[in-house]
Write a structure and sequence with these properties.
By secondary structure, the chain is of the alpha+beta class. It contains 13 helices and 35 strands.
């Protein structure tokens, strides 16, 4: 599951507003909503009283979810007629700005739908397992401005607990009802409400209220979530600036989602127990409270927040594990981008949100790598100073790449136009190759002479060079500003080997043989063909579902060997016996010994002069079905072994020195 932080409607409203008004340094004056909500999670019945000041002179115009209706409207205490047209509700009449509008809204939340394919995260629902009121389906008057201020009182039967975005002002249980009041006295997105039969645990940490809203079966996990959340908030506050909200809630969801909101995250109850949820995922969502929540995103000029959050949360955790873990994450980012077909590559400025795996490779992986290169360009101290400057200047405002550049130029004391124009405005990446290398001497000085070529469009790139000599390692950096350049580096003694960017510190296209083949190399290719040879309807149906989940697009499907052009990648999905029959005719070879056990397995199998294969097999139709939900979460692996629903073996194939390494002859 990939965490998402922006429901669809909010994105649409922000895009529409910025398109009409230009990239804003600050948001327009916010509307204040006073909201009373009564909800019965068991039935979905709800009633809302929404009061706000109308800033316009003409008719009141707003949106509501289709399952709600306005039963009464008044302006300055006088009842008014209501009508609907073209997806909007209208209260006719002209008048001066500042009129007080009060709406009575009622309806029934749709029942919970946790089946695959449901619009998880964007659709409201209700049921005994939980209720969810997102503003992707507006449940108060949604006027087309991106941020508001609000005070919300929500009431539910006493068996339930309700929580909303905003600061918790009060809560009580009386006369068979639980009532809580929340307030946002700062600019923020419209409120989202969550309710369920939750057990609430709380920890106060440096003035921040941390809570978990978990079902009874997950209560044992609460203490660790609270402890980890407190640690992350303290760590990020020291690096960036004070946490912008007074609360952070981890709320269990009865649907398969991982969503972020100001001061809250809504996570599938089924995966709360997984270690990565309390680690990387929790850190990522907490970091979003700085970037994307308190500092809004100028979507018309690209979404910088996902990449910056990935770098400061996910990558920072990898750095704490050591240089090998950090190197592995950078390699993963490069592998993700390398799998994007050139015709689908776009500049970073075009990335708005993760709609598919290819968009993630650009908006998360590439952007995170850009921040890594910026940090190396200006130094750690200037980088962190730039983060704090960007935060100070843009808290509770909309910001874009120009604001980021201004902050980092101020902290670095240098002009970074070339850096931002090259990496943000242009698509692609350099493809650095080592064309020649030789040892030489000059006036008694040992030298290494070598040539680099970056192919295609020329990028300005600081390329790390590592030379192993008889007396130790020499690390240097050379700057490429032309397609092909010659360099000479003095060394203290005779050189043994030369390696170009061995730790993957520049964003570039990987060369063949540099990195192991992983699932994503096959699934992101637009040329991949899916082989489903099974005559068993259950196997064929499951295989098709797995293919769609992995490729995220329409598929070219074949059922017989020989139906595929040999220059196209192959994704094989079937039973073990079906694969045995297939390989005898197609010839991809035996599975590696490490895959001999388990009820299911998946592995990549590169071959000479072949674009690669991803093979997914299971012992039976039922075993294949058990893989379907898990496989999309392991795109960076080269092999997996399953025992039922559990992964019992995983890994990445080892590679030898690639084409950017040269070992000198003795």
């Amino acid at each position: 599951m990939v965490m998402s932080t922006r429901p669809v409607l909010l994105l649409a409203v922000l895009l529409a507003w910025i398109s009409s008004h230009g990239a804003l340094a600050a948001l327009p004056p916010e509307i204040h909503h006073g909201i009373d909500l009564s909800l019965d999670p068991a039935t979905g019945n709800m009633k809302v009283r929404d009061t706000f000041q109308w800033a316009g002179r003409g008719p009141i115009k707003f949106r509501l979810a289709g399952w709600l209706k306005v039963t009464r409207a008044s302006i300055d205490g006088q009842n008014r007629e209501i009508r609907q047209q073209d997806g909007y509700w209208y209260v006719p009449g002209n008048g001066p700005p500042g009129r007080e509008v009060t709406l009575t809204i009622s309806g029934g939340l749709p029942p919970l739908n946790d089946q695959p394919g449901a619009r998880a995260g964007n659709a409201g629902f209700s049921g005994r397992a939980g209720s969810y009121l997102p503003m992707a389906e507006p449940w108060i008057a949604y006027v087309d401005v991106p941020w508001i201020r609000f005070r919300l009182q929500v009431s539910v039967p006493a068996a339930y607990r309700a929580v909303a975005t905003g600061r918790l002002i009060s809560e009580e249980t009386r006369d068979g009802r639980y009532t809580a009041t929340f307030e946002a006295d700062y600019p923020t997105e419209y409120p989202t409400v969550f309710a369920g039969e939750y057990v609430v645990n709380e920890l106060m940490s440096d003035g921040v209220r941390l809570r978990t809203y978990f079902p009874e079966r997950s209560v044992s996990l609460a203490e660790e979530y609270l402890r980890q959340a407190a640690a992350y908030i303290a760590q990020y506050s020291r690096r960036i600036g004070a946490y912008p909200y007074t609360e952070f809630h981890v709320i269990a969801a009865p649907i398969p989602v991982g969503l972020g909101f100001p001061g809250a995250t809504y996570v599938s109850a089924r995966i709360l127990h997984l270690p990565f949820m309390r680690g990387r995922s929790l850190a990522h969502e907490i970091m979003h409270n700085w970037w994307g929540n308190a500092v809004g995103i100028d979507f018309m000029n690209g979404n910088w927040a996902e990449g910056l959050t990935t770098y400061l949360a996910d990558y920072a955790l990898a750095e704490t594990q050591g240089p090998d873990a950090a190197r592995e994450m950078r390699l993963r980012w490069l592998q993700s981008f390398a799998a994007v077909p050139p015709e689908l590559d776009v500049p970073v400025l075009r990335f708005v949100s993760k709609t598919h795996d290819r968009a993630q490779a650009i908006g998360y992986s590439k952007v995170a790598f850009i921040f890594h290169m910026l940090r190396r360009e200006i130094g750690d101290a200037a980088f962190d100073s730039g983060l704090r400057e960007f935060w100070r200047a843009n808290k509770f405002r909309i910001a874009g790449w120009r604001d980021l550049r201004a902050a980092f130029e101020k902290s670095a004391g240098s002009d970074l136009r070339w850096f931002f124009e090259q990496w943000i405005n242009e698509r692609g990446a350099p493809k650095v190759s080592l064309e020649s290398a030789a040892r030489t001497t000059e006036n008694g000085q040992h030298l290494i002479a070598f040539e680099l070529d970056q192919g295609g469009r020329v990028f300005r790139a600081h390329v790390p060079i590592v030379i192993e000599t008889a007396s130790g390692e020499v690390r240097k950096s050379v700057t490429m500003t032309a397609r092909r350049q010659a360099f000479r580096i003095p060394v203290p003694s005779g050189a043994v080997s030369l390696r170009v960017d061995p730790d993957f510190n520049i964003f570039r296209l990987l060369l063949s043989g540099e990195a192991p083949t992983v699932f994503r190399d096959i699934t992101l290719s637009s040329a991949t063909v899916v082989a489903v040879p099974s005559k068993d309807k259950r196997v064929a149906t499951t295989a098709a579902a797995i293919g769609h989940a992995l490729l995220e697009r329409d598929m070219t499907v074949i059922s017989e060997p020989g139906q595929r052009a040999k220059d196209r990648p192959l994704l094989f999905i079937g039973t073990t016996s079906e694969y045995d029959a297939w390989r005898k005719l197609e010839g991809p070879g035996d599975a590696p010994d490490i895959l001999a056990r388990g009820t299911g397995r998946a592995w990549t199998q590169p071959a000479p002069n072949h674009p690669g294969m991803l093979i997914i097999t299971a012992n039976s139709a039922a075993d294949l079905a058990s893989l379907a939900r898990l496989l999309p979460h392991y795109r960076h692996q080269s092999f997996l072994v399953f025992e039922g629903h559990k992964v019992i073996e995983k890994g990445v194939w080892q590679v030898t020195e690639g084409p950017l390494a040269y070992r000198f002859q003795e």
